[in-house]
Amino acid sequence: MAKVVDITEKLTFEGNPSLMIKGKKLEVNADAPTMLKVMGLMGCDNPGIDEILKTYDMMFPEKSKKEIEKLGLGFNDLIVVVQEAVGLIVGGVNGQGEQ
After folding, report:
1. Rounded to 5 degrees, what are φ and ψ at 56?
2. Which is the most buried residue in 54, 69, 90, 98, by most CB within 10 A?
3. Is 98 helix (H, G, I), strand (E, B) or coil?
4. Residue 8, SS3 per DSSP
């Protein structure tokens, strides 16, 4: 019989983290398959518009995207939002603005 090891207690099932922008909580998809794809896209030295767009589409659920669109951000600000979302997931939170 094959060995079975239950690792449930070692895992976290806290749900997705969120970014806060102008008092709005924006959920960020943090599941492992999505983040592996995101890290692959953003891992190159100079990600282009295509990589940033794909990352944005993968990381933000529709509800969050609608809120981001309502903010009317400029392109450079949108890049900051995407970068902060990636940092939130892969690099943890630096404590700045954390709630």
Report:
1. -55, -50
2. 54
3. coil
4. helix
Task: Kindly give, in sequence order, each residue whose CB lies less than 8 Å from that of residue 40, ignoring residues fewer than 6 positions away.
Answer: none
Cα–Cα distance, 30 to 34 (Å, whole number): 7
Gyration radius from the chain CA atoms: 16
Listing DSSP states for 19-87 in one string gives EEETTEEEE----HHHHHHHHHHHTSSS--HHHHHHHHHHHS-HHHHHHHHHHT--HHHHHHHHHHHHH
Structure tokens at 83: 């970068």
On whether the pTM is more than 0.85, the answer is no
- In which element (H, E) is residue 88 found? helix 75-90
